[in-house]
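Quick one, probably user error.
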């Protein structure tokens, strides 16, 4: 038994000397399971031509005629590997070929049980490893693998005699329940090399105990420690929720010309208005704005927005203050670059670079916003993200120079706090909500509609049930719930936390 140790600050949980870092946290207990050992019987074949292509790496390939034996496989012309070699390939490989194929079958009951998967290899000089036809690791191999490929560099005899451990990312994506195949192409540097060696083991770590709970996107560095032995360092990016309730509410991309005698040009009056549309405080310190203009929110005048708070990013504060009364406005800072007067893509990203809001505006949408004075205003801040790059989702402002700093979305009157997708109103998102939605769609109103609206596709019902954010409520929204719950699909469009949804009862506060 061992432990899974991890850090969330970008440091290694193992200190340089091998001790546990004082910053490391214990995620769970880990138990090592050997899926393929060095002593397992393997099938080995030294190809003479390209007849197999790459079919030999597939799980359903027929290897019945291949010779079988026990690892390590190889040959020795002089002195060094002879006491290690169990499967001698001297006759087949020396001065004949630099490549040997290896296949070994192993069984897995539950692929999702493995938190970590490691390939351990002794190799002289290179290898490419595949699990069920998918490449999981390659070392010292050429870009294109052929039946007679050579290693692109050597691996010393002293290093080749001991196992080197390699982490295989996302075990559940390569393993399947039941029969699995580990297929390896082992390569020598030259056909006339005096020696050759290869052996492999496949080891999984099953974790038990507490899981790692994260409430924000995080970069995790982790290792397992079993019987004093550390695994290779694993780096994982966890994206918790990309539906951060920050919205662009108004955009002045092509301001009207300045008055005669102004020291500023028109572009210096640009602004981007943002609002926290949730009823909770919102940390914006790790958000980045990229695209035609850039802004690092860690340098903003505020790092946290109050519920419903409206803030501004501007091109030039001095110019902006000559046109607008900023006494009641909150300006976060100046962005770098300038907004295009034609079209531009704006992207807001989170801690790991994950997009939280991305859209492209176009000057062809509304003529008045293209230098005549009015700004672009977002019509529905709760609409799905795919609608944001549509002109129908925006309008020209009624005010001549826009209305920067004015709230476009009243959080208190927006509706009750709901967990998006909670169709049966039990305050949880689970398979029962998918069933309830399908019943409403196909059997009529056999259960009460959760929110105000004549149908499940109208009023607050639509916002609650439109899980994929395409503006409609349809069977795919029920599937969206299942994909999120069981297949690591994307979360509901409005996120997984309680959020105000117009014309819905307030469940989360009860």
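Nope, works fine. Designed sequence:
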């Amino acid at each position: 038994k061992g432990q899974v140790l991890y850090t969330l600050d970008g440091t290694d949980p193992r200190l340089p000397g091998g001790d546990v870092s004082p910053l490391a946290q214990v995620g769970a207990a880990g138990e090592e399971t050997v899926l393929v050992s060095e002593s397992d019987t393997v099938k080995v074949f030294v190809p003479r031509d390209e007849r197999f292509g790459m079919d030999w790496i597939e799980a359903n390939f027929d290897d019945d005629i291949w010779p079988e034996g026990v690892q390590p496989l190889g040959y020795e012309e002089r002195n060094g590997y002879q006491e290690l070699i169990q499967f001698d390939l001297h006759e087949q490989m020396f001065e004949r070929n630099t490549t040997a194929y290896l296949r070994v079958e192993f069984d897995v009951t539950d692929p999702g049980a493995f938190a970590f998967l490691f390939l351990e290899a002794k190799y002289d000089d290179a290898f490419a490893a595949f699990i069920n036809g998918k490449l999981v690791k390659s070392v010292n191999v050429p870009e294109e693998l052929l039946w007679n490929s050579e290693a692109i560099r050597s691996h010393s005899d002293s290093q080749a005699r001991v196992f080197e451990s390699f982490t295989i990312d996302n075990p559940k994506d390569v393993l399947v329940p039941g029969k699995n195949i580990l297929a390896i192409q082992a390569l020598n540097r030259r056909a006339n090399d005096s020696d050759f060696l290869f052996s492999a083991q496949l080891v999984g770590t099953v974790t038990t105990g507490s899981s790692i709970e994260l409430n924000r996107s995080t970069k995790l560095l982790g290792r397992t420690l079993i019987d004093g032995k550390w695994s290779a360092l694993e780096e994982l990016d966890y994206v918790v929720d990309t539906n951060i309730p920050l919205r662009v509410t108004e955009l002045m991309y092509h301001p009207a010309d300045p008055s005669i005698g102004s020291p500023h040009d028109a572009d210096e009056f640009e602004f981007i208005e943002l609002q926290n549309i949730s009823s909770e405080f919102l940390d914006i310190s790790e958000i980045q704005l990229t695209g035609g203009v850039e802004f690092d929110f860690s340098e903003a005048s505020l790092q946290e927005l109050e519920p419903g708070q409206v803030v501004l990013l501007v091109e030039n504060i001095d110019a902006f203050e000559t046109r607008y009364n900023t006494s009641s406005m909150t300006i976060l800072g100046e962005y770098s670059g300038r907004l295009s007067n034609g079209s531009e893509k704006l992207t807001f990203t989170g801690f790991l670079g994950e997009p939280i809001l991305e859209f492209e505006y176009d000057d062809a949408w509304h003529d008045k916003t293209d230098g005549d004075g009015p700004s672009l205003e977002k019509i529905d801040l709760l609409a799905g993200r795919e609608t944001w790059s549509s002109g129908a989702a925006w309008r020209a402002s009624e005010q001549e120079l826009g209305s920067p700093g004015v709230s476009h979305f009243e959080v208190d009157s927006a509706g009750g706090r709901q967990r998006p997708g909670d169709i049966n109103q039990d305050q949880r998102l689970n398979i029962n909500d998918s069933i309830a939605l399908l019943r409403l769609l196909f059997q009529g109103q056999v259960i009460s509609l959760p929110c105000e609206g004549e149908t499940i596709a109208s009023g607050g019902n639509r916002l609650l049930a439109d899980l994929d954010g395409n503006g409609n409520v349809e069977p795919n929204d029920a599937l969206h719930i299942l994909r999120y719950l069981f297949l690591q699909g994307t979360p509901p469009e409005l996120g997984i936390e309680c959020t105000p949804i117009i014309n819905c009862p307030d469940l989360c506060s009860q």
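The chain is about 10% helix and 35% strand.
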